[in-house]
Amino acid sequence: MGVAEFYGRWAALYDRVATAPGVARWRRAAAAHVADRGDFVVEMGCGTGVNLPYLSEQVGPEGTVVGVDITGPLLDRARERVVELDNASVVRGDATRPPLSDSDGVLGTFVCGLFEDPAAVIDDWCDLVGSGGRVALMDATATEEPLGRPLNPLFRAFVAAGAPGSTPREVLRAPFARFDAPLSRRVEASRTALAARTEDRRYETFAAGFVGLLSGRVR
Length: 219
Prior knowledge:
Number of strands: 7
Number of helices: 9
Helix content: 40-55%
């Protein structure tokens, strides 16, 4: 099953997870890291659009926000979220081949782990915003923080359950089999690529270190 088909089938559950209690604080921080008043900001892989209201608020009425996603059922929910926002819209498209030519900022949340070549995608996003533009990435990986480390097996099972094509057997084995290793490699590759292209970087963590937010201004 492909990524678009998988997330389309589970759009309602995805939306409930994306709006879980406490997550709003992370999303508000991500919006603040990537957008200023009057900016044109694009969210790549916007899913059900939960970040779009925060981005809309951050850029204000003078700015514009566009959410891009490849999955139709997710975009349907995103459209419902932005219907009353005058400065936000969504478009169907592939985050690895953005359907835009420029922007002031790009945000990607929990999407870099899906890319076959995340470093190349981040390079393209940096080229899209150009010198002085900002890119922010928020992703989840296993944590090294003492408070969160006992929960790493549960995180690995969560990753397996949310991966297209995984089987019930793989979900049961995930806590002991490092099922999250490919995800971690892709997230690390995307962060390394962003660090190589940017300055004025900021990095902060949430949820006992499971969620990291890296942002920077393209040189």
